[in-house]
Amino acid sequence: MGIFDTLLGRTKPVQPKLDDLFALPSAAVTLEAGTGFRPTGSGSVCFRPVEGKSFSDVQKDFQQLLNMSAGSGGGLPVEVVKDSYGFTWVVESRMSSELDTLVTDLHAVNSALVDNGFGPQLLCTLVAFRDEAERRLGLVYLYKRGTFYPFAPLQGERRDNALELEAKGAIGSDLKFEPDLSRWFPVWGAPGL
User: Which CATH fold would you assign to the domain 18-183?
Assistant: First the structure.
């Protein structure tokens, strides 16, 4: 970015940081040991949709790739869902013991978008967890910040802030957590959670 861009207030889009997702499997072990939350096998990628054939082609390509991967590994077909805010979610479900494969597949979606110039459209990735009491917890990865945060929804669009802080404390330094709590955005109705 040049001096004129700075003076005129123009900024470059922040490029997503993708490889931090691979820290999730070891953090999941730590989370389970500390809180009893286990992966459900469900994960999703959220992005802003773009009109046009090139974006549509990329979306078809990663859907085919993930459906082939799910078919060979016993997973369910990939779902593409639009939420009430107009964002698109690619949702994948696998066996709960296949977190490594799930993370690899979610990373493939992210990489396909970035490699084809759609990195600025990426918003987050979410991996779902539950405990024996059926409480829900999502670990959300913010691409542009390269950080994670826990999200624990309750009935009626409320969240369990104490559980979120407990999960963060249990995981500790296994993940890079978002230090600004105001960026721990609620992802109400996130598919897969």
Answer: Alpha-Beta Plaits (3.30.70)
